[in-house]
Structure formats: C-alpha cells, structure tokens
TrEMBL record:
One GO CC term, this protein: plasma membrane
Membrane topology qualifier: Multi-pass membrane protein
Name this protein carries in UniProt: UPF0056 membrane protein
Cross-referenced Pfam families: MarC
First-listed, main subcellular location of the protein, grouped into a coarse class: membrane
C-alpha cells in the first residue's frame, strides 16, 4: 500500500507538473483582471479534478467501448494545444475580442477558458489521463487504494490552484510589456509541447 501511494503521488505530481503550469496559466489569462483570473483558476481546477476522477472510475471501460486509444488522446491534445499556442505567439486571441460591457459574453469566455486549454489538456491532458487509467488499474478494485489515488489527485490539483493564485503577483510584477513578451515566449514553448504530444501519439500508434 505504501509503495502504491508513493508511486501514485510521484507519478501524478510529475505528469501534471503544477509549477510548470504557472507560466502557461499567465500566458493564456494575460488579458484578464485579477478577479477573473482567480475565477478561472478555481473553475479550471474543479473541472480538471472531476475529469481525472471520472477517468479513474470508468475511463478504461468507456474508452474500450468507444474504441478510442490513448495515443489518439495524445494526438488530439497536441493539435488543440497547437491552435492555442499559435494565437499566443501572434497575439490573435480572437475569441476574447468582445465588448467589455457585455457581461454575458464575458462570462461565456471565462467559462470556455476554464475548460480549454487550462482544464483540458494542460491539467487533465493525455499524460494525466493515461496515468489515472494505469494507476486505477494497478489498484485492482481495492477501495483503499482507489481512495488514496483520488486523495493524491485532489492534493495535486489543489497545488495547481495555489500556484495559479500566486501567479497573480508575478503578473503585476511583469507589467504590460513583460506580459506581452512572456506570452510570446510561452507560446513558442507551448507549440513545442503540442508537437511533442503529437509525436508521442504517433510513436505509440506505430511503434515500428
């Protein structure tokens, strides 16, 4: 049991990587206010946690029934991330060009951003989903192990929330020019991550 808990904790922490998500969070929320950024942080973490727990419970049978493979998840996640990274590099966040007085439209944009790309695929991405499926399989329907796995997942997502909320201080320190530069640089890094997702998916699909 202790070995399982240690393995699950290290795996989920490394795969989700809360510290590594901090600059990406700043990059995709660069044009939001402090209050909106906090709201997006809470929502995205809640959504990611729900998705990971769901896959831990019924993920493997569901994917098997639909005929969907994990490499397909990696490729799809990579393509979605590439679209976001392209917009970050060239400053074309067209989905956020709205009238600031239109509260309903702004709320819709915040909800969308919480789901994609923050919850999916940055936190509950192909790697995290794969890890949940494998660790849930190793639990072998043992309730205590599954409870430990879900508790670990909650703690890791909670650490993501803490990092996101602390990122606001970094945002104030950078200022407008610093944020613009950071957004472009992170867009390039996110592009590389997206391409790596696709490469990993293709390699897993065609191992030869």
């Amino acid at each position: 049991m202790l070995d399982y808990v240690f393995s699950a904790a290290v795996t989920m922490l490394v795969v989700i990587d809360p510290i590594g998500l901090a600059p990406l969070f700043l990059g995709v929320t660069v044009d939001l206010s402090a209050e909106e950024r906090r709201l997006v942080a809470w929502r995205s973490c809640a959504i990611a946690l729900a998705i990971l727990v769901l896959f831990g419970v019924v993920g493997a049978p569901l994917l098997g029934a639909l005929g969907i493979t994990l490499p397909a998840f990696r490729i799809a996640g990579g393509l979605l991330l590439f679209a976001i990274s392209f917009e970050m590099v060239f400053g074309r966040r067209t989905e956020r060009k709205f009238d600031a007085t239109d509260g309903e439209m702004r709320a819709q944009v915040l909800r969308t951003l919480s789901v994609f790309p923050l919850a999916i695929p940055l936190m509950a991405g192909p790697g995290a989903i794969t890890a949940m499926l494998l660790l849930a399989g190793e639990a072998r329907h043992d309730p205590s192990r599954l409870a430990a796995l879900f508790a670990i997942t909650v703690l890791v997502i909670a650490s993501c929330l803490v990092v996101y909320l602390a990122a606001e201080r970094v945002n104030r320190w950078l200022g407008v020019t610093g944020n613009a530069i950071l957004s472009r640089l992170l867009g390039v890094l996110l592009t590389a991550l997206a391409v790596q997702f696709v490469i990993d998916g293709i390699r897993a699909s065609f191992p030869g």
